[in-house]
UniProtKB/TrEMBL annotation:
This is Bidirectional sugar transporter SWEET. The keyword Ribosomal protein does not apply. It is found in: Endomembrane system. The keyword Ribosomal protein does not apply. One of its GO terms (molecular function) is sugar transmembrane transporter activity. It comes from Selaginella moellendorffii. Keywords: Membrane, Repeat, Sugar transport, Transmembrane, Transmembrane helix, Transport. Belongs to the SWEET sugar transporter family. The lineage of its organism: Eukaryota, Viridiplantae, Streptophyta, Embryophyta, Tracheophyta. The chain crosses the membrane at residues 21-39, 45-68, 80-100, 106-127, 139-161, 167-186. One of its GO terms (cellular component) is endomembrane system.
């Protein structure tokens, strides 16, 4: 079952973490900016797909915050994370536009995106640790792991076709991390 249908049915986030969704929102915001013609040319797919990702992740986070178990503690942590994402992205955008020109903009923002994109793919590592300790995949949704693997594979191939190292590097790492998640799922599913 998809994570958010479980959260909705239980009216509680349980042991699910908002961190992967916060990382994905930040990732989509930064890649959206990278896709703009003022940063890199001919990246309409990067722009449109990440624009849709921003909307989807924002909806997920609103649902997560709404159903968070410890309203004061978890909701305030989630809000702080969201404020950090917005603040970090705004500062990154301002620095990119204010301090750099042309290819230097692409290099600066691309480098930031490599780090954030890799963090997004690495975010489930804490859940993977829990899977190994508990020998249960209850809090590592299969569809999220599968979609992450497929997403990383498609973007890595796209990066290879575009010859864009800033797309290849984090998504190549995402393929490896996604394969590791799927391997853990195969080992510990019941």
């Amino acid at each position: 079952r998809p994570t958010f249908s479980i959260i909705y049915k239980q009216k509680d986030t349980g042991r699910f973490s908002a961190f992967p969704y916060v990382c994905t929102l930040m990732n989509c915001l930064l890649w959206f900016f990278y896709g703009l013609p003022i940063i890199s040319e001919n990246n309409i797919l990067v722009l449109t797909i990440n624009g849709a990702g921003i909307v989807i992740e924002a909806v997920y986070l609103v649902i997560f915050i709404y159903y968070a178990a410890w309203p004061v503690k978890v909701r305030s942590i989630a809000r702080v994370l969201l404020l950090f994402v917005i603040f970090f992205c705004a500062i990154t955008f301002a620095i990119t536009l204010g301090a750099f020109e042309g290819d230097d903009r692409t290099t600066f923002l691309g480098s930031i995106n490599v780090i954030i994109n890799t963090m997004m793919y690495a975010a489930p590592l804490s859940v993977m640790k829990m899977v190994i300790e508990t020998k249960s995949v209850e809090y590592m949704p299969f569809m999220l792991s599968l979609c992450s693997f497929v997403n990383a594979t498609i973007w890595a191939l796209y990066g290879i076709l575009k010859q864009d190292k800033f797309i290849i590097i984090p998504n190549g790492l995402g393929v490896l991390l996604g394969a590791l998640q799927l391997g853990l799922y195969a080992k510990y599913r019941k």
